[in-house]
Structures
1.
Amino acid sequence: MQNPEPLQTTQRPQPQLSAFLGMGFRPLYPAGTFWAAASIGIWIFAPRLASGTLAGPAWHAHEMLWGFVATMAVGFLMTAGATWTGINPMHGKTLALACLLWAIARIGFLCASPLGFVIAAASELTFFALAAAALGRAVHTARNRRNYGIPWLVLALGAADGLYLLAAWQGDYSLLMQRFDAGLLCMAVIALLITRRVIPFFAMRAVEGLKIPMHERSGQWQLAAGALAVLFTLLQWHFALALALACTAFLCGVQLLDWKPLAVRRRPILWILYVGHACLGIGLLLAALHSLGLIERAAIHVHVLAIGGFSVLIVGMMTRTALGHLGRPLVLDRMSKACYCLMLAAFVLRLIALALSNASWVALQLAAVAWIGAFALYLWRFVPMMIRPVPERGGPAKVLIKRS
């Protein structure tokens, strides 16, 4: 009797460095995600490790905004920029250099010596300049006029970082917080630009028959109001700042309602983005009230923006981007859904910690555990995909990106 022919199976591709450095999101998403978990672990459970020139709350604020959130934004814009322009802005050795600069900055800011701080600051600012230059080259080579402003936004984010680090070096805490607010609003402008583009695009592709506006006109007004808010923050014009923030928040609400949130309630990969966009609007409104002196604690609007807005959007965009660009079906498994739930739990627990003085430490620790758990799940699920080429079989058709 003859042996049956063996079944043909598709072998899993082997890890490849060229694949890992093929697009910006592949190394930057895992790096930023790992640091998001590690830095919160340090801040909550081992704060003595952050005792350098940039120490205590100043280190925590900086690493969350520029070490994590801004890094993830750069990773996304590098990937989206390739789709928008047909040119991969950064890959291979250039991308490896950017990642090395980013890693040197993370280590340097933990060093106790002033020299470590200087090296870290120089590395980080070079990272943002390199990212802005790569994006600028891609959009100008492609004559992609619609995105000419994006490299300048990344450069502004890096400039705010430089001003923040200068204030830290000088030991001026009030100036430090003013410049942190400027950086926070720069990041909010970038986040709103991204969500305004991707939410309606993703939703209309995923929900059959759904027609919602892209809000290009309101997005231009929103961008202008957000840019003015950054300027008014630096000038300390509080009433004008509150007005600009309120206008930006109002446009968030208009956009959200026009995007028919109930239509995506059964699709977690979409509604997580709606939640993040809503929290951006709420956070900006709270910031306006804080600017008028109606809310005393700045930590409230900062954490609504940073966790409910930026971080919720990040976990949603990381899963969507990774699945789409790695040739996988846009379907969430239980691990990805658990990641969403843990991030939302971290957000709620952090707000509870701000509201309840008696249980604040317990709630803060639980929020940290949920936060770390969310990013650990993402790393476990997606890093094995990031280090391998896109499978030849299965998943959506690949989009060819020109490399230059």
Note: The chain is about 75% helix and 0% strand.
2.
Amino acid sequence: MANKVDIPLRLVLEDEEWLSDVRLQSIFDALTASGATVRVAGGAVRNALLGFPVTDVDLATTSPPDEILHLGEKAGLRTIPTGVKHGTVTVLSVSTTPLHVEVTTLRRDVRTFGRHAEVAFTDDWLADAARRDFTMNALYCDRSGEIIDPLGGYRDLIAKRIRFVGDARARIAEDFLRILRFFRFIAQYGEGPIDPQGLAACRELREGLDGLSRERIRQEWWKLVAADRAEFVVEAMADAGILAHVLKSDTDLNAFKRHIKIESFLQLKPDSLMRSFNLFPCRGADVKLLRERLRLTNEETTRLERLMAAGRVTPKLRPAERRAVLYRLTPPTFRDAVLSSWAQGGEPTEDPDWAALYRLADDWQAPAVPLGGRDLLAQGIPPGKEIGALLASLEDWWIATDFKATREELLAKIPAMRQFQG
């Protein structure tokens, strides 16, 4: 049953620094000069009401795009016709650190087909709100912070209930990415059970995800998988047969859930890459596959390749072995290897031995090798491949001594090693 909420007749955002920012207010000044109505739309209002950071501000106006361009230029602002066909102009404030704001003319849908729609400009705020995805995104506020709520979305917002605007199937058919956005919003902003009508529509139309670009999927997935309710939402997506269409793979929910619990136990920030890695049953066995599915960056791909080369790292290693493995892997890969080994195993997710192994990367700093190429040259060894091979062998022996061998001991080891290698 939906929560009963007493909604004030007039709600005002007060003491919001982003709203009182002189750069934003200068844009309001420019765009209202002709008498048009201009309001902040969607995400900024939603986040401010929920207490989340406001990082991007979008404005909606009754002015058509050509008038937005004219008014902005007249006020000395920089304007960019980023999407004039769909009513959007980017406006930059005049300052040493310009504020970028997307300004969009109110629209109503004439025809919709997938991600794109044929729109007509309007001055009807209700019609504009009716074409948005979720009720909590159909909120506006004026420059003083007064909330305008054409569809009653405020009730859903304070109940943290994610609902599609109007008919869920119709909203999804306009853009199938909204299936993933629905679950991402639940993970980031929601509480309580999933809206049954929205869930049913997502399940019914899930095959529409197959036609989306992997770049668009990654953008939503990266936020979803790092959100507070990721565990609950990912399992719900799996149960509804939706997750397979997102990741194009079977999944290992157990390792995924364990990884999240381990992150919480160690007080780590959510790691979208490692969470996704442990969700894939194939994991890095085919890093190229994972890269294609999630459009991994070169840096992310290299990180997983190093992790796969590291192998399993467990508390069964003796202290000297732990230090040797940490030295060879480097701290970042060592931490990844411990976390993935822990998540994929059966040990408790609050195991102190595993925690101590993970923290070794912070508690122990590897010493520098006390011998270098110049030392070998000083011993009369000619430049070339022999020096590189000798240095590698000497380093291996130094590691085997638990990093205790001195420079003098390493120098004394050279004749025997040269004889062995020769």
Note: The longest strand covers residues 107-113.
3.
Amino acid sequence: MMKKMGFVWNLRRLMAERNMFQTTDLVPQLAEHGVHLSREQVFRLVTQPPQRLSMETLAALCGILECSPADLIEVRAVHRQTAKPVASGEAADRAVAPSSRSVRVWRPEGL
């Protein structure tokens, strides 16, 4: 089993706890801290975990939300099972059949 580190991005939750429900609320506040991001960039920052985050942006968010980086980012261990090589004869045995459901086809009269 391979151990990998992941994280949970808590920006949206921290904003809600401070009655900030619009992503656009952050745009002027970030600008006051010297971080100039477009509305679209701020929307992505709030709604998706960032792949990269500048220290200036992190510091600005912490200042705006009066929190620490640990409040914004929760690091967690993610356990993933590594796939074992499968012998060619075993591959067919492990194939999963597609799910089936009954379907009724209606045809117009006269066809």
Note: Residues 2-80 form a domain with the 434 Repressor (Amino-terminal Domain) fold (CATH 1.10.260).
4.
Amino acid sequence: MKSLGRTLVAAGAAAVLCAGFPLNAHAAEGLLFYTSEYGAIVLENPTDGLCYSVGNAQDPQNSTDRVATFYSAKRCGGTATRLKPGEEGFLTFASVRFTR
């Protein structure tokens, strides 16, 4: 019985240690093209789940392998519009997030 208890404690400790380490950040592969007040912009291999504030941007072309969600406000707030990989949109946005 002591052996089973030790095994369970060791397994629990291993689970806690593994959960404490961050997972590798995954990135969308490809490019996002859009226009800002500074001209044409390209975002290369953006990180999944990270909210990118881009100022006053428009006309995105999602050439990544992820779904891009464009938001009307900073910090991924406001109205959301999704573009699948390979799609482009005629919209104005202030932030974007990529997801699988």
Note: Strands lie at 30-36, 39-44, 51-64, 67-73, 77-83, 92-99.
